[in-house]
């Protein structure tokens, strides 16, 4: 049972007074009294004080039309010139107080005070947007999602800290249970987002959902189909950022909600058996990896590691489509890391996640997540280590955190063996890094110097020279220094120029459908062994076009 304080008015006041924002609460109560507005602190503030959890978002309910905005403006003035940001369409107002003005160095988060007048709500079956009317405090508490979020405390000076708990949220806090004030089916029918929020609060607080809530989640799972993707993703992000994110995903899966909001993850669930051989359940493996990442990065804020956690969620996402049974080797998932990486952009777009460098980070680590395993062998070459360091760049430490998290064997001896092997891989990386300085590698001869030296403009020849210099360094043919790289440029420049001219000649020859083979021709010009005779090289490149176009048919 949780150590919820005894809940007399005095004890709640004492618990509130231990918070850094307590003076602000006291002032809000005095201001409300001075302007004759009935005001209460509600929701997460009350819940988190009782659980002794930190919070920086404080919600206040007032009674009477437009009194929320009125009180916010009065409080902003009383606090010394802060701005009350008014949102008239929602009837709310907010004040942001910088951390240095209230937090005593305990956090760098601003304190957000949000004010709204009490209201009652009714819903249509085809929308989660309520019809809103002015209401009493009791009406406002009735519309709340969960009992633990439906408590309020008086702010008036002579009643400060007195709790109003019509649905016995205190008992649910002590029972560590998520329950609804009203019938859960009605609650979720009105606003289906509350179903995902139930999983989110259960995850953040490490609570269970009540039996009746669990049944209602199953019954009303289909209602999430009317939700906007942005609202769904906001809740998913909060689940993922929690200490044990698997809690929420297990609830969503067990209640049938996950298949509606994240079918790609749902599709990982299940185990096939052939000739007595079974593969592991990749859904539960994925959740274990996700929890492992959360545990291994516990010294960092969950939001700071959210994209590494997405790597955990998506690293095996293509396993269902790469699954094969080999009578000799059992179940295989060859190439799943590359296929999984290629699925990342579409999943990010579908979930309305950012498609910038954060997506590219996830895509890269998903693609690379098996590479460190290949470095475990004693006879691994420095070249293989260099290439991984080059491709991972500054994210190599996160990659190694992930691959350790991906070790989920139930055999302790096997787990130790893998983790020890990764320690040895990191030692190899450190040795090569110290010798070759490959993290954030940039070729010591850049494109501008190549153009100036060869007297050419930007084009394929420059790209060939840059890539060949890079490959020579990664293969250990030349050191990662300017003079050897420049000499190597002198050695390859004639062939780079010739290949650039061959590519330009091919572009002039290609027309219509042949243009679709441009990428294949460019790849051949960069990487293939071309005949030394130009006519023979052109003939070779013509066959590349034929093969490429033939493959489309």
From TrEMBL:
Signal peptide from the UniProt entry: none
Superkingdom of the source species: Bacteria
Assigned keywords, A-Z: ATP-binding, Magnesium, Metal-binding, Nucleotide-binding, Nucleotidyltransferase, RNA repair, RNA-binding, Transferase, tRNA processing
Gene Ontology biological process terms, A to Z: RNA repair; tRNA processing
Cofactor(s) required for function per UniProt: Mg(2+)
Sequence ranges assigned to domain tRNA nucleotidyltransferase/poly(A) polymerase RNA and SrmB- binding in this UniProt record: 207-266
Domain HD stretches: 283-373
Domain annotation Poly A polymerase head: ranges: 39-178
Any GO MF annotation of the entry: ATP binding
Annotated family: Belongs to the tRNA nucleotidyltransferase/poly(A) polymerase family.
Name of the protein described by the UniProt record: tRNA nucleotidyltransferase
Organism: Longibacter salinarum
